[in-house]
Design brief:
four-stranded mixed beta sheet; alpha/beta; 340 residues; 11 strands; seven-stranded mixed beta sheet; single chain; 14% strand; globular
Amino acid sequence: MRWDNLTEGPTGPAALFGADAVVTRTVDTPEFRGITFHEVRARSIVNRVPGASRMPFEWTVNPYRGCSHACVYCFARKTHSYLDLDTGLGFDSQIVVKTNAPELLRRELGARHWTGAHIAMGTNVDCYQRAEGRYRLMPGIIEALRDHANPFSILTKGTLILRDLPLLQEAARVTDVGISVSVGFTDSGLWRTVEPGTPSPAARLHAVRTLTDAGIECGVLMAPVIPFLGDAPEQLRDTVRAIARSGATSVTPLVLHLRPGAREWFTAWLGEHHPHLVERYERMYAGGSYAPTWYQRQITRQVHELAAEFGIGPNDRGAARRITVPERPAPAEPTQLTLL
C-alpha cells in the first residue's frame, strides 16, 4: 500500500500524515467482520474545497476515508486509488480513520486566521458509517464546533447520528446547524443491492422524524435517483410520500452521476444484476459523468410536483444546510467533489 504519497517529503506537498503514524487493525466482531481499519494521525482536518468544485461550501471535515456503506455508485471510490487501495471492495472494507480529528479540529478552529466559515461534513464519505460506532469521532467534532459557535452541516445515510442528538441541539442553540439525510428511494429490493451496508430507507426516514421532532431541521437529499431502476413514476411517488410523512423540511432530488472509479464499479455491478441495462447506460452517460440535462430536469420537475402534492416544499441545493449557493453556469464536467 502506498502511504508515502501522503507523507512529508523534501519536494512534495504538506503531508497529511506520516507513514510511521499508521496503525492497521482488524476487528473480528460480527459488525466489523471483513473490515480493516488504518488508524492515522492526521496533520490537518479542515480541507478547502477546490475552486473548480460545484459545491455550495468552501470547507469540509472528513474524519474517514473509505466507507462500509458499500454504495455501488459512490463517487468517492476514486479517492482510495490515491493510497493504492482498491476502489471496489477495498473502498468498502479498508477504512482510514483519522483518530485525532476532534483535537485537531479544535486547534484549527482556534487559530487566529480562522474566520468561522461554514464547515460541511459527509460530502466525501459518511461520517456516521459503521466505523463511527467504534471510534466515536463525531461527538468531539461537534463539541469543538459548538464551543466555537461555528456553523456546520452534516449529510448522512447513518442513523447513528441520533446518538449525538443532544450535542446537535446544544450546537443549534449557538450557531446554524443543517442536517440532511440521503434517501434516494424506498424500494427495499433496490436498497439491498445498491446500498448493502446502509440502514434501510425506512430507518433513515425514522431518523428524520426523530430529528425534526427534537427541533433540528432536517432535509432529505433524494439521491441518487437511479435511471431505469428507481425513476418509475410510482417509485418517485412512493419515495416523496414517505419523505413528506417523515416531517422533512425539504426534498432535493439528485440524479445518479458516475465519476471515474465509481463508473467502473457500478458498470460491473450493472452487468451482473441488470445486464439488459448496460447499453442503455452507455448511451445515457456517453457525454460524461452526468445524465443528460433534459433527464435531470424531468426528474426534478416530477419530484417538485409530488412534493407540492404531499405538502413538502422543494428546496434549492444548499438551503437545507443554511448556506448560500452561488450562481453558476450550466453543468459542466467537474473536477472534484459532489454530494454523493
